Amino acid sequence: MGPAHASVTDVTPYDKIFENNQRWAEEQLRADPDYFAKLSVSQQPDFLYIGCSDSRVPANQIMGLAPGDVFVHRNVANLVNNVDLNVMAVINYAVRQLDVKHIIVCGHYGCGGVRAAMQPKDLGILNPWLRNIRDVYRFHKQELDGISDETQRYERLVELNVLEQSINIIKTAAVQKSYLARGFPIVHSWVFDLRNGILQDLKLDFVQTLHNIQEVYDLTKE
Q1: Is position 106 annotated as part of the catalytic site?
Q2: 108 is annotated as an active-site residue
Q3: 111 is catalytic
Q4: Which residue in 52, 73, 106, 188 is the catalytic one?
Q5: Does residue 34 sit in the same domain as residue 64?
Q6: For residue 6, what pLDDT is reported?
Q7: This prediction's pTM
Q8: I need a labelling partner for 57 at 20 to 30 A (CA). Which of 1, 95, 108, 161 fits?
Q9: Mean of per-residue pLDDT scores for the chain
Q10: C-alpha angle 62/51/73, rounded to 5°?
Q11: Residue 17 falls within a domain, yes or no?
């Protein structure tokens, strides 16, 4: 006997999405009849947000910004890998075509990717991806090994990973050349706390970091 079929009157979670979408679109039009006409013309976001794919951390909502305000890229553990053409294309497009003024790397406490990278397990295809986080641990091993509390050590690795990925952005030619020519974008490092919904700015010193890394990663000769 085959599987039971749901009644045609049953509304599945998938079907509910389209009901929600219809309701949302109607609400936007009630507030502004020209909302979608303006939205469809172009995008001029000031922010590029690079965050984790975790479903609990929606970029626009936690920043309190509307569609069109944020250009978004997300992946497991918010990594900026120099051989990942996806994230490199996003950064180049955001800087050179959209003229974003700020680039934000946002991690979050409770990140499963960071936690997985701390475990002695073979995770298959995730191994080469999460190795980037193991590298962050290696760079900061002395500090992290000095934190006896496992939760605090894990949360500090989340922060250090965000900072290292921010540095990876500053290494790119698109960011270096744009900043020297136009004074933007500025790169920021944030962590989102799932326990209270608050964003924490890790206070990355962009100008000093750019100056320091140009000793090795200078792509402008300026």
Answers
A1: no
A2: yes
A3: yes
A4: 52
A5: no
A6: 53
A7: 0.90
A8: 95
A9: 93
A10: 110
A11: yes
218 belongs to an annotated ligand binding site: no
Residue 1: its pLDDT value, please? 52
Distance CA 48, CA 72 (A): 6
52 tagged catalytic: yes
How far apart are alpha carbons 49 and 65 in whole angstroms? 12
Where in the sequence is the domain holding 22, given as residue range(s)?
A: 9-41
pLDDT of residue 185: 98
Please report whether residue 4 resides in a domain. Answer: no
Looking at the fold, whether 67 and 25 belong to one and the same domain comes out as: no
- Indicate whether 92 and 170 sit together in one domain: yes
What tens digit of pLDDT does each residue of 38-64 get?
899 888 999 999 999 999 999 999 999
CA–CA separation, 31 vs 54, rounded Å?
A: 31
Count of domains in the chain?
2
Q: HEC string of 29-68? A: HHHCCCHHHHHCCCCCCCEEEEEECCCCCCHHHHHCCCCC
| 54 belongs to an annotated ligand binding site | yes
> Is 54 noted as a catalytic residue in this protein?
yes
Cα separation, 54 vs 208, in Å, equals 31
Establish if 56 belongs to a structural domain. yes
In a domain, 169, yes or no: yes
